[in-house]
Predict the structure.
Amino acid sequence: MTTFTDVTIDKKANVYFEGRVTSRKITFADGSYKTLGIMLPGTYEFSTAAREEMDITAGKLRYKLAGGDWETIDGSGVFYVPANSTFSLEVETVTDYCCTYLED
Amino acid sequence: MTTFTDVTIDKKANVYFEGRVTSRKITFADGSYKTLGIMLPGTYEFSTAAREEMDITAGKLRYKLAGGDWETIDGSGVFYVPANSTFSLEVETVTDYCCTYLED
């Protein structure tokens, strides 16, 4: 079981799309942070500030970066979203994810 | 913002009721742990091993302990569930909770 140690976690969740997407922010000693989240089946669009690593721990979905084609992740996989951009998701099964915000 | 510091968090979520209830386990240095979870509107029944403190951070629900009456929490509140017992929930709005497992 992969764990993150010595982190600080906000007690309060981030809730989007009426609870169909939720996440918890975890902050590391060096000040960097990730969000651990759940997405229920549905279609969503997100925007980014920093560049993001979307690490799909478990689930089946399709994602589309701005100007890109639809790509599928089935089970687990990682994709990267440029900073100040948008991306679309078609989530087919309950999806567990870990998002890292990359300060390039 | 309430936070928990110096914790270890499992990367993988706990997923129940087809994703309508999900949680993340956080473990403290002393070995104790809590789960931070989200419940979508719905009716659920849970069982306990250890005695549990259910701390509702945000949400509206009704809960019923074994042999008890329905009680309402609207916004935030805490209730306790005996060890080796069951409890029922009627969740009216997306509910953010923190469950502590009390080793009495």
The beta strands of chain B are 3-10, 14-16, 21-27, 33-39, 42-47, 51-65, 70-81, 86-91, 95-102. The domain at 8-102 of chain B is CATH 2.60.120.10 (Jelly Rolls). The longest strand of chain B covers residues 51-65. DSSP finds no helices and nine strands in chain B.
